[in-house]
Amino acid sequence: MSEIMRVNVGLGERSYDVLVGAGALTAAAPELVRHFPRGRAILITDRHVAGLHLERVSETLAAHGLEVEPVIVEPGETSKSWAGLARVVDALLDHNIERAEAVIALGGGVIGDLTGFAAAITKRGIDFIQIPTTLLAQVDSSVGGKTGINTTHGKNFAGAFHQPRLVIADRDLLATLPLRERRAGYAEIVKAALIGDAALFEQLEAAGADGLDGAGLDAAVAAAIAFKARIVAEDEREGGVRALLNLGHTFGHAFEADAPKDVIRHGEAVAAGIALAFAYSAHRGVCSAGDAARVEAHLRAVGLPASAAELAHTDWQASSLVSRMRDDKKNMDGRITLILARGIGAAYIDRAADEADLLSFMETQLS
Ligand SMILES: NC(=O)c1ccc[n+]([C@@H]2O[C@H](COP(=O)([O-])OP(=O)(O)OC[C@H]3O[C@@H](n4cnc5c(N)ncnc54)[C@H](O)[C@@H]3O)[C@@H](O)[C@H]2O)c1
């Protein structure tokens, strides 16, 4: 077992800890079982994760007197739906869950978002515990309390803010994660560093591709979570500063929306989006070209795309991408909100992007 790091998300009576490191589940088991007064835990997971990790997780918890009752859903975004939500809520009620007991989410962001939303509405709110099994879920989606499902109107269009009671980010669970998924999650660590932790970015640069695993990854995961925790503590419901966490996401969502389904991973779109946000900041003269080049170089060093042309889909139209940016949930008064940067670790919110300038920048980028 490596050193286990503990990060607190300070939200008054809704505060909770995130435990990070290889072996975190074993270390956290004694405090986890306290949330289950009946000695049993209903655990929501997906079929892939169940096949890979359910047995070991159940054994670890059984050693602490907790019997796991699994509910297994299909992997993928289709489970983050009204039908998937009904299935999980019904399963919790079928198991006669009581308001004093929590439910466990074991899986990637899909399982965390779905279980969290089910917990928010079942019996008007029960507790939940996140055991994230993808790097993206460990550094991003399991922390901060955004839960939800997709609707025909778009991704994450129905949901609730519902904070978990405990998050266990155990690196051992990532051992089975394909490299592509690992890199996609790593993009969110780079994002956190670039928004407001220049020292972390220097550490990531120094580690290069070696930072994708091992103790170095634990330190980066803990730092990225601590960074997100500070932002969430300041602005839980995204009235202001939390929007910074969308660095790279306006460009990234446009790529995701314009590409055929399932061709590019969210983290890959975000990586290219981060590079574009820095390139656009340099184009606007607010950020040095040197910082934008460092960002691109690091993304490439870890195997992430650093431009539209490096994504798995390459048939882009500037006008279509800018029109997708106009549809972004973060926009206010019909104007495109962009997260830009004055340099590494110095992101800021631009609430009124100049659309004509953005379009000509995108045309240059794609030519
Ligand atoms: N709530 C938030 O703040 C927030 C933030 C970012 C993203 N999200 C959401 O997160 C979701 C994406 O999460 P994701 O990237 O984790 O995807 P995911 O949950 O779909 O997992 C990706 C794939 O990896 C598999 N998997 C999970 N853990 C594994 C492991 N340890 N080994 C091998 N395979 C494993 C899953 O079965 C799945 O097939 C999206 O729905 C997105 O909207 C939410």
What is the secondary structure topology, with strand pairs?
Elements: E1 5-9, E2 16-21, H1 24-33, E3 40-46, H2 47-62, E4 67-73, H3 82-94, E5 103-107, H4 109-121, E6 128-132, H5 135-141, E7 146-151, E8 154-161, E9 166-170, H6 179-196, H7 198-207, H8 214-234, H9 249-258, H10 266-283, H11 289-301, H12 318-326, E10 338-341, E11 347-350, H13 355-366
Parallel strand pairs: 2-9, 3-4, 3-5, 5-6, 6-9
Antiparallel strand pairs: 1-2, 7-8, 10-11
Bound molecules: nicotinamide-adenine-dinucleotide (NAD).
Briefly characterize the structure.
The chain is α/β, with parallel strands linked by helices and 367 residues long. The protein has helices at 24-33, 47-62, 82-94, 109-121, 135-141, 179-196, 198-207, 214-234, 249-258, 266-283, 289-301, 318-326, 355-366; strands at residues 5-9, 16-21, 40-46, 67-73, 103-107, 128-132, 146-151, 154-161, 166-170, 338-341, 347-350.
User: How would you sum up the major sheet?
Assistant: 7 strands, mixed
H/E series: EEHEHEHEHEHEEEHHHHHHHEEH
Mean pLDDT: 96
Structural class estimated from helices and strands:
alpha/beta
What's the architecture of the largest domain, going by CATH?
Up-down Bundle
Strand order of the largest sheet: 1-2-9-6-5-3-4
Bound molecules: nicotinamide-adenine-dinucleotide
Number of distinct beta strands: 11
CATH class of the largest domain: Mainly Alpha
Distance between the first and last residues' Cα: 50 Å
Contiguous helical run count: 13
- Helix fraction by DSSP (H/I, runs of at least 4): 40-55%
The low-pLDDT segments are none
What count of structural domains?
2
Q: Characterize the quaternary organization of these chains.
A: single chain
What is the assigned CATH homologous superfamily of the largest domain? Dehydroquinate synthase-like - alpha domain
Q: Which overall shape is indicated by the principal axes computed on the Cα atoms?
A: globular
Q: Report Rg.
A: 20 Å
Return the CATH topology of the largest domain: Dehydroquinate synthase-like, alpha domain
